[in-house]
Write a structure and sequence with these properties.
Quinone Oxidoreductase, Chain A, domain 1, Rossmann fold, alpha/beta, Enoyl reductase (ER) domain-containing protein, oxidoreductase activity, acting on NAD(P)H, single chain, about 30% helix, oxidoreductase, binds NADP nicotinamide-adenine-dinucleotide phosphate, 17 strands, globular, seven-stranded mixed β-sheet
Length: about 350
């Protein structure tokens, strides 16, 4: 049997365009899978990595986080998967630094506990929007103890339950999600709604329906001049336990609004995708932290939730993919498109 040829979209040095060239065919270590990728998705993180080389530990680099494809090889001690299974998975070059763990290649190594079987009726192109956002969303919601995000910055610990496959009643908690139409914000909305949390989402007015489809109970226009008043009133009106705010955007503007909301509501969690403002700038009783979206807290969700939830439609492949092209050479134009910004859209390259 001939050995398959691997190719990758390599980053040779920071700020340079990706170059498609030969790559070694990786093998699966214990607890790992090698996936023959059929689709990869683009995340804003990829653009930062390309521009600055941040997180790259080995040059030349292969990076990227989201893959969908077929299992090519199963490592020792892996029982949930067999060769040929259709899967989605989270590639973790971000933490491992190994090029073979990057998504932008034909064959990627992933940990088996960051993969799930993709139901036959869901295309690779749809399924690939899920992995990185899913892991980020679980890290937002379900960490029980603060951890390490970066020097001087803790991860948040909202300690909320995992999503349920059943219809769950309200658990009497309210979470505000700022940036609910982003990939991470919309996935966090889906998972929070699936635990019985009342989600109040802040999105562009053109994305109200999208955010409700993800499970937001109430939506507010991010450009509304009375945003702070309206969100604060809505939290009070809903009653119950105010968990806090998940900020899926993390800018000066979003932090300013959040500080006002938290101040009026007497504090709560402020979980962000970027380093939060320093404690000295925050009202009393605010637990602020930055998520770091690679964490084994997501393992039970990967193992027990993703496949049946996709099958039942409880977990939707949102935001919808926009296919930029077919082939590794299209990853660079997908990255360029991502830098220009997207709205409730995941950029995907088919392979
Ligand atoms: N720390 C971590 O582990 C981690 C993990 C994943 C992602 N991130 C970071 O999280 C951020 C989001 O990533 P993503 O992939 O989810 O982004 P994305 O899908 O590319 O975000 C696009 C969305 O952002 C929304 N948006 C932009 N500015 C906004 C504002 N001021 N208020 C409300 N919504 C706003 C837009 O909303 P409308 O079109 O509705 O206006 C749009 O739908 C990125 O900065 C990324 O690097 C961090």
């Amino acid at each position: 049997m001939s050995i398959p040829k691997n190719l990758a979209a390599w980053l040779i040095k920071p700020g340079s365009p990706l170059q498609v060239d030969d790559a070694p065919l990786p093998t699966a270590g214990p607890g790992e899978l090698v996936i023959k990728n059929a689709a990869i998705a683009i995340n804003p993180l990829d653009c930062h990595m390309q521009d600055s080389g941040v997180f790259v530990k080995e040059w030349p680099a292969i990076f990227g986080c989201d893959i969908a494809g077929e299992v090519h090889e199963v490592g020792k001690d892996v029982e949930r998967f067999k060769k040929g299974y259709r899967v989605i998975g989270h590639a973790i070059n971000l933490t491992s630094g190994r090029p073979k763990d990057g998504a932008f290649t034909l064959y990627t190594v992933i940990p088996a506990n960051k993969a799930a079987i993709l139901p036959d009726e869901i295309s690779f192109t749809d399924g690939v929007v899920v992995p990185f956002a899913l892991e980020a969303a679980v890290c937002v919601l379900s960490l029980k103890e603060p951890g390490f995000a970066m020097p001087g910055v803790n991860t948040p610990a909202l300690g909320l339950p995992y999503p349920s496959l059943q219809e769950v009643p309200s658990i009497g908690k309210t979470l505000v999600i700022y940036g609910g139409s982003s990939s991470v914000g919309s996935m966090t909305t889906q998972l929070a709604a699936a635990t019985g949390i009342h989600v109040i989402a802040i999105v562009g007015a053109h994305n109200f329906e999208f955010s409700k489809r993800c499970g937001a109970a109430e939506v507010f226009d991010r450009n509304d001049a009375s945003l702070v008043d309206k969100v604060t009133d809505e939290v009070r009106k809903n009653g119950g336990d105010f968990v806090g705010i998940f900020d899926a955007i993390g800018t000066r503007e979003t932090y300013a609004h959040e500080i006002s909301i938290l101040d009026r509501l007497g504090g709560g969690h402020l979980a962000s995708v970027h380093p939060p403002p320093p404690a000295t700038d925050l009202p009393a009783n605010v637990n602020a932290g930055m998520i770091f979206a690679v964490n084994d807290v997501a393992a039970p969700v990967w193992k027990d939730y993703v496949t049946p939830a996709l099958q039942s439609g409880k977990l939707q492949c949102l935001p919808a993919p926009l296919v930029v092209g077919k082939g590794l050479e299209h990853i660079q134009s997908a990255l360029d498109k991502s830098k220009a910004g997207v709205s409730a859209t995941k950029l995907v390259v088919e392979l």
